[in-house]
Write a structure and sequence with these properties.
By secondary structure, the protein is an alpha/beta fold. It is built from 10 helices and 11 strands. The chain folds into 2 domains: about 90 residues, Rossmann fold (3-Layer(aba) Sandwich); about 130 residues, NAD(P)-binding Rossmann-like Domain (Rossmann fold, 3-Layer(aba) Sandwich). It is about 40% helix and about 15% strand. Strands 1-11-8-7-5-6 form a 6-stranded parallel β-sheet. Strands 3-2-4 form a 3-stranded parallel β-sheet, with helices on both faces. It has a two-stranded antiparallel ribbon with strand order 9-10. The structure holds guanine (GUN). Guanine binds next to strand 4 and helix 6.
Length: about 290
């Protein structure tokens, strides 16, 4: 079998086009322009690339982008004061604090200081609790993007065996909640899981979110299963230079799977598209 390639880039372009239409409607009908504030502390190069890309796409769909770049040694007090100011600003409908934060800052404290209604990452403890109990919440962008692609490919996910490899608060745990919400039978596997290959082999849906390059080989995949690859890892090429790869070994998995997301061009573009969608949702909710 050769897997169907799930084109996250095209999918994300479609989501962004729908967001842009919604933004136009909000402007025309309510006179409101949604605004997204992104806070970056320090100079982590990967974070700088993400933040730039988020800002560019925010403007492209017609929203206002507010970037706040703070020095790496910014105190918690200063950061919390900025968040309080953004919470109170009616022009700001979404707030994102880029992670990871420098080690001297308490990420949980910072994230939980964001107004949950503006928490477009869905990381605030209130949103985590709402998602876990099936209530209306802000849903983390990466798992939301994965779910949208899975629904589009499968239609109903009801009764399917889903194995999420990785237990992070950003991806693994919320992904499992979303799949459970769509009536999958869900397993969260991680670095301590016994006989990981046997666990993955049971899966109709594998979500790879461990952050280890090409860790999941095709031999672990049940023929016809869907592989959603959240990993973005940079590896050296034998001929020199580097390239991006996922957490699944693409070639061997694509030979067995029914469908697979590529890296790059799979989950990545969907994450930013979902961030824009969450911002429009936050703006609509704030304005009745
Ligand atoms: N760093 C890596 N991924 C994310 C994300 O989805 N949101 C934030 N805020 N930081 C990140």
């Amino acid at each position: 079998m050769t897997a169907t390639v799930i084109d996250g880039k095209a999918f994300a372009a479609d989501v962004r086009a729908k967001v842009a239409e919604h933004v136009t409607r909000l402007k025309e009908v309510h006179g409101i322009t949604p605004g997204l504030a992104v806070v970056l502390v320090g100079e982590d190069p990967a974070s700088q690339v993400y933040v730039r890309s988020k800002g560019k796409m925010t403007v492209e769909v017609g929203m206002n982008s507010y970037e706040h770049k703070l020095d790496a040694d910014t105190s918690e007090e200063v950061l919390l004061a900025l968040i309080a100011q953004l919470n109170a600003d009616p022009a700001v409908h979404g707030i994102l604090v880029q992670l990871p934060l420098p080690a001297h800052l308490d990420s949980d404290l910072v994230i939980n200081s964001i107004d949950p209604a503006k928490d477009v990452d869905g990381f605030h403890i209130s949103n985590v609790g709402l998602l876990g109990t099936g209530q209306k919440s802000m849903v983390p962008c990466t798992p939301l993007g994965c779910l949208m692609m899975l629904r589009a490919h499968h239609g109903s996910l009801s009764g399917l065996n889903a194995v999420v490899v990785g237990r992070s608060n950003i991806v693994g745990k919320p992904m499992a909640q979303l799949l459970l919400g769509d009536s999958c039978t869900v397993t969260i596997a991680h670095s301590r899981t016994k006989d990981l290959p046997a666990v993955v082999q049971q899966a109709d849906i594998v979500v790879a979110a461990v952050g280890r390059a090409q860790m999941i080989p095709g031999e672990w995949i049940k023929p016809g299963a869907t592989v959603i690859d959240v990993g973005i890892n940079r590896i050296d090429k034998p001929e020199g230079g580097t390239r991006l790869v996922g957490d699944a070994d693409y070639d061997s998995c694509a030979a067995v799977a029914g469908a697979i997301t590529p890296v790059p061009g799979g989950v990545g573009p969907m994450t930013i598209a979902c961030l824009l969608a969450n911002t429009v949702t936050a703006c609509s909710r704030a304005n009745g």
